Amino acid sequence: MLEPTHNAELPAIPGKRYFTIGEVSDLCAVKPHVLRYWEQEFPQLSPVKRRGNRRYYQRQDVIMIRQIRGLLYDQGFTIGGARQRLSGDEAKEDVTHFKQLIRQTITELEEVLQVLKAH
């Protein structure tokens, strides 16, 4: 099992259009057989398959794999819990919550700015 802080140490995603399973394995610090298993468990993950059933992952697939990896390895979710978390309901609630936090922070910063301008 990887250290929880390892996700932040993953290499940057190159500006390529397609990645092989080996490249994605290196970029996400996950073995290829785990990636193939996750394809079965997470409907959001569906790489393009070409000649000889070879998988080609796009940038959004790599980002999704990193999210899945973070949920499973860093945050301790089960496969079912991570699937539910990514399915939308909770993700939508999280987005709404974060938007509210951002609005509140902006309001507080504007108030601080007003106080600083007054002095």
UniProtKB/TrEMBL annotation:
What PROSITE patterns does this protein map onto?
A: HTH_MERR_2
Q: Does the keyword DNA-binding apply?
A: yes
Q: Does the keyword Metal-binding apply?
A: no
Q: Which Pfam families match?
A: MerR_1
Task: Give the HTH merR-type domain ranges.
Answer: 18-88
| Gene3D superfamilies recorded | 1.10.1660.10
| PANTHER family for this protein | BLL5018 PROTEIN (PTHR30204:SF15), REDOX-CYCLING DRUG-SENSING TRANSCRIPTIONAL ACTIVATOR SOXR (PTHR30204)
Q: What is this protein called?
A: Transcriptional regulator, MerR family
Phylogenetic classification of the source organism: Bacteria, Pseudomonadati, Pseudomonadota, Gammaproteobacteria, Pseudomonadales
